[in-house]
Every structure is written in C-alpha cells, then in structure tokens.
Design goal:
The chain has about 400 residues and is α/β, with parallel strands linked by helices. The protein has two domains: about 1-320, 3-Layer(aba) Sandwich (Rossmann fold), CATH 3.40.50; about 320-400, Alpha-Beta Plaits (2-Layer Sandwich), CATH 3.30.70. Helix content is about 45%, strand content about 20%. The chain is built from 16 helices and 14 strands. The strands form three sheets. The protein has a six-stranded mixed beta sheet, with helices on both faces. It has a four-stranded parallel beta sheet with strand order 5-4-3-6, sandwiched between helices.
C-alpha cells in the first residue's frame, strides 16, 4: 500500500467518529511576540493527549477478526503506545506495548492504565524494535509500527486536512519530525489540498536523522533530548522519500531553544506541551523573520511531558525570566541583618521563597555568615531594583554566580 492523498482522505473519514477534531486556535500572545499570525493545532487535546491516537486507530480498523482476536503489539517511547493501548482496549483487542527502559514514568503508567501489557526493554526505540518483532512472531501478534506504515501515516495526515478546513488561509505548516510519519502524511495531504502551501519540518538538533537524510549530510543521533518523542535514530526510508518530494525545509533546534519554547507555550498560551512540540515552536522563533506577514500553523503534537520534568522546566524558565532569583550575601555575623534584608525585599514588592543561612563552612570568615535568599520578583528589571536597594543599604551580595 502507498501513502496517497486519497488514502489520507479515506482514513480521515474512517477514524473521524472516534477521534477528537482538535481545535486550531490563534496564539494571540505568541503571535504578537513573533510578528506573524501563529495558529496552534491542539493535538495535546486528542485522545491520549497526542496525535498518535489517529494513526493507531487507523491501523486497528484494518485488522480482520482473527488478527483482532490474537491481539496487537507496538514499540514506542510513549505516545504511540498510549494510542494503540487506548483504541485497542476500546475495541476489545488485547495489546502488548514494548517501551524503552527509562521512558518517563507517566507514559508507562498511562499506557498500563489504558489496558495494555507493558514490557520494558532496551534503552531506546531503535533498540526495542527487533525485540518487539521477535515477540510478535512468538505470540502471533500484529505489529503496529509507529511511523513506518502507510496506514498509520495516513491517520497522522488527517491533522493537515483538519487544519486546512479550519483555516484555508494558512501559508505555512510546521511539523515536528521523529520517524517521519506525521510530516509525510501531513505534507502529502496539505500539498494535495493546497499545492503552494509551505511545509516545514522541525527536529531536535541532537537527533537530526531525517534532516541529514533530506540534505545528504551526516546525522547526529547521540545523547539525550527533551524532545524524546522524536528522538529516532533510524527513520523510515519510505517516509524520507515522501519528505524529499513534499517538504520545503527542515530546521533544527538545540536543547535550550526547545526548553524555552515549551516554557513559552505554558506561560504565554497556558498549554502543556512536550518537547517535540517545543521543537516546532523553537524553529519558528529562530527563523521568525521568514514568516513575517504570513499565517502559520504549528502542530502541538503532544502534551505527555513528565510532571517532575515539567516542574523543573517551569522553575528554570522563571529563573531565566528573572522571576525567581537567588541572592547570595556575605554578612557580618550579628543579629538583625536577616530581618533588615527581608524588610527591604518586602518593601520592594518581592516575595522571599527560601532562606539558607550558614556560618560553619570554611568558605566564609569565622565572624561572617553566608546567606542565600531565593526571591520571587516581577521580572529581571525588578530584580535590579531590589539588588540596588540592598546595596544602597550596605549589603554585599551577588545574584546567582555573579561576582560580589
């Protein structure tokens, strides 16, 4: 079977009754910040909070009665796993999901909660694939590949059909890339509906296998990335051929840019998004001038970010914005100084979050103490006002690693 626009349209009609027609919303704050109209396709509101539920359902609907009775198996770092588990259980089909060791706990738990048998094996998707195929053969299960399957890619391509129905004036669509199924499907559908539309791929710099294949350069697929959902070392060759024909450009984002973009989606648009979606916004931010005056659609492909990771990301974002700041004082060890510092900070309209006071470490003189005060301020300018007031009052301090 070949991935075509007709297959995508047929698949969209088949899966529509049991998938969410997710909203396409204008991101007002981000549009103002970026200088063009940005529209977000909220696939983080899909069943299982990711677009992968579309392709999983599409494949399950093609199984015959014997295949349904025997069950299915999939290998995934999380979103495809949840999509297969959710729809398989809903349809009465047994499912086994192989997940790499180290997959975020929330994805493992949710996959099990959807009714799948979860098996942890390998350290990455690529290491787990052969094990999954062997297990499928041994137990007579149908293997549902997360991206190297035209039916699965057709299900993912339905995202583009909906986006262009919801806003036919879109000039560009930006799509995160892992194994290439989402962008292959979306680009095929989008170019068939609107041949002049620009389709841009977004990858993590740490895992740029599709961009490398697209451009004929060496791939970088070592290390870790916040965008673990698109950290694929061996993308589909069939998808790459489609991408070469239909995608206009692939851009990459580094880890700091992806982290910043996930924080922007949360702080500016109040959307929980995982790193893969952050990669899409990150490349838009890095190349905003290219999109000036255009209407741009971005797929917020999933929202299954680990809660602990998200909490750390939020705190780091607040630190970057100057809203959470650590002030470090070197004080003469005498009564009343902490009270004076707290009063000055309070009078300036900031809040003390945490205080650490130590005098026993040899980093300070015997008659001195070191004081760390974590404060919550409005922004970096507010921090400057507070530190100026403290220094005017005679306190020696530094902000974070700044020298006194």
């Amino acid at each position: 079977m070949t991935l075509t626009a007709d297959l995508i349209r047929e698949t969209h009609a088949a899966i529509a009754p049991d998938t969410v027609r997710t909203p396409l919303v204008r991101a007002a704050r981000l549009s103002m910040m970026l200088g063009f109209d940005l529209f977000l396709k909220l696939e983080n509101l899909q069943h299982t909070n990711a677009f992968k539920a579309r392709g999983a359902l599409a494949k399950l609907l093609t199984l015959d009665a014997a295949q349904r009775a025997a069950g299915v198996i999939a290998c995934s770092a999380g979103n495809h796993a949840q999509g297969v588990a959710y729809h398989a259980t809903r349809m009465g089909i047994p499912s086994v999901i192989v997940m790499p060791e180290g997959t975020p706990f929330n994805k493992v738990k949710r996959t099990g909660d959807f009714g799948a048998e979860v098996v942890l094996h390998g350290t990455s998707f690529d290491e787990s694939v052969q094990f999954t195929q062997d297990l499928a053969a041994a137990r007579g299960l149908t293997f549902i590949h997360p991206f190297d399957d035209p039916v699965v890619a057709a299900g993912q391509g339905s995202v583009a059909l909906e986006m262009l129905e919801q806003n036919p004036a879109l000039d560009s669509i930006v799509v995160p890339i892992g194994g290439g199924g989402l962008i292959a499907g979306m680009a095929t559908a989008a170019k068939a509906e609107k041949p002049k539309i620009e389709v841009v791929g977004a990858q993590a710099e740490a895992f740029n296998a599709v961009k490398a294949a697209y451009e004929g350069s060496a791939a970088h697929t070592i290390g870790s990335t916040l965008a673990e959902g698109i950290a694929v070392r061996a993308p589909s060759a069939a998808n790459i051929e489609i991408i070469r024909r239909t995608v206009d450009r692939i851009d990459t984002a580094n880890e700091a840019e992806i982290e910043d973009a996930v924080f922007d989606l949360l702080s500016h648009e109040k959307l929980v998004a995982e790193g893969a979606a952050g990669a899409g916004l990150a490349v838009l931010k890095a190349h905003a001038a290219r999109y000036a005056g255009r209407q741009v659609g971005l797929v917020v492909c999933g929202g299954n970010i680990d809660s602990r990771l998200l909490s750390t990301l939020i705190l780091r974002g607040l630190v970057r914005d100057g809203r959470i700041t650590r002030l470090i004082f070197k004080l003469d060890d005498r009564p009343g100084q902490l009270a004076d510092i707290a009063r000055i900070i309070g009078d300036a309209g900031a809040n003390v979050v945490e205080v650490i006071h130590q005098r026993m470490m040899q980093s300070v003189a015997l008659k001195q103490a070191e004081l760390e005060v974590v404060i919550e301020a409005r922004d970096a300018g507010h921090v400057d006002e507070i530190t100026a007031a403290l220094r005017d009052a005679g306190f020696a301090l530094r902000v974070g690693t700044e020298a006194i």
